[in-house]
Design a protein that fits this description.
Chain lengths: 258, 160
């Protein structure tokens, strides 16, 4: 006889416990950062997998999103006779919101899930135990380079996404709809401010990188050692990471107004 | 994992491309005032600046020559606006600064009208001749007020 209130209590406790474990895991990653030797080669490998291999999808999606905002924005703005501020609309929405958020979601789907699956498979095939037997700390050797690469890659990819989006909006607005190229760029440059917009965009990207890196490596590291365990770890990484990206996006915007 | 120098090179290029994108977005689009410290600073005090914002353009005959660097309140409760201008600009001391609006409801910007004096403004000087922003709502309010009160005696309200 478990009554619903009891069940709610148990679920809340489990959530807090999980949060505590996640925080301790973050602490272990932090401690591993100070440890020598620096795993720089592993970090570069992860940058390649997470960053370089995501470039095509980021550029493609950025251009497509920018083009769509250009089209939608143009059709809406023209009703108010304000088509000249298309650059501002495209630029601000990409820089403040869509660039960091969509990049984080895309990278989560494309590369972060793969990282979780990789760590999870290493758990299942007892490779992490093998590392421990050689007295190599798996958090130091496997987890930290991955988490760090996710944090480093996010602002770079997000900025590229934003620039390709601005380019996509330019193609639609200037080449197809016939706005003046100078007007587009001027309204963009006038509207965008470094402290409020660009710095906020970078802040968001870094926060999303930390979130995603932490969740992915934590879920992978704590995979149940079965093949079903790997699949559920990967699924929950994508779900939890996506939801927390959107929730944190709201709070960053609400608290710091970016 | 196999180490390869080609891969390292590709990663290096990726990081450089990312950093270049950040730099472009910050400097060109975001307008970090990289010419800021070298710019020519002038101050003007206005009774009313309307919706003038930082980074609003400063123009002479419609040509952009600088931007609003800072807006603050002066000791005498007037708005103190600081401009950064093109350092090559030579402005006479009787230059007028006015806050104008592009279009009816457009953005505020500052327009400078150089005078004819021989003496030039030095960096950090204050522009003495100013024209404050015109607040449309206040003007309409005054108009309605005048129409109500001074209906019988139009000369009275005009004299105010």
């Amino acid at each position: 006889m478990v009554n619903p209130v009891q069940r709610l209590g148990a679920a809340s406790l489990r959530f807090v416990e999980e949060l505590g474990r996640l925080t301790r895991f973050a602490g272990r990653i932090g401690a591993a950062l100070l440890q020598r030797p620096l795993r720089f080669g592993r970090f570069v490998d992860e940058l390649f997998k997470l960053g370089v291999l995501s470039l095509i999808i980021i550029c493609l999606c950025g251009t497509a999103v920018g083009a769509v905002i250009g089209l939608q924005g143009y059709n809406t703005l023209i009703r108010f006779g304000a088509a000249n501020s298309l650059g501002a609309v495209v630029g601000l929405s990409l820089i403040r919101e869509l660039g960091p958020v969509l990049t984080a979601l895309l990278v989560t789907g494309r590369a972060v899930s793969a990282a979780t699956a990789e760590i999870g498979t290493m758990v299942v095939t007892e490779q992490l135990d093998g590392l421990r037997m050689m007295s190599v700390d798996p958090v130091h050797y496997v987890v930290t380079p991955k988490a760090l690469a996710m944090i480093a890659v996010m602002p770079l990819l997000s900025t590229l996404f934003t620039l390709f989006g601005i380019f996509g909006g330019y193609v639609i607005g200037v080449r197809i709809m016939g706005l003046d190229a100078g007007t587009y760029m001027t309204s963009l440059q006038d509207a965008v401010d470094f402290e409020n917009d660009v710095a906020g965009s970078l802040l968001k990207a870094v926060v999303f990188g930390i979130l995603v890196g932490l969740i992915a490596t934590y879920r992978g590291y704590n995979t149940a050692p079965t093949s079903a365990g790997v699949s559920s770890a990967t699924t929950s990484t994508v779900v939890i990471a996506s939801v927390s990206i959107l929730v944190f996006d709201y709070f960053i915007t609400a608290l710091w107004g970016v | 994992m196999r180490r390869s120098s080609t891969r390292d090179l590709i990663v290096g290029l990726f990081v450089l491309a990312g950093l270049a994108a950040v730099a472009y977005l910050s400097l060109d689009v975001g307008g970090v005032s990289y010419t800021g410290p070298k710019g020519f600073l002038l101050i003007a005090k206005f009774d009313e600046i309307g919706g003038l914002k930082k980074r609003a353009p400063v123009v002479i005959s419609g040509v952009k020559v600088g931007e609003v660097a800072d807006i603050g309140l002066a000791d005498d409760y007037r708005a103190k606006v600081t401009f950064t201008l093109d350092p090559t600009l030579k402005l006479p001391v009787d230059t007028t600064a006015s806050i104008v609006t592009s279009g009816v409801l457009g953005d505020r910007y500052v327009s400078l009208q150089p005078g004819g004096d021989e003496q030039l403004l030095n960096p950090g000087d204050q522009i003495e001749f100013v024209e404050s922003a015109v607040i449309l709502e206040r003007m309409i309010g005054k108009l309605i007020h005048n129409a109500d009160v001074g209906g019988g005696k139009p000369n009275d309200s005009a004299a105010q």
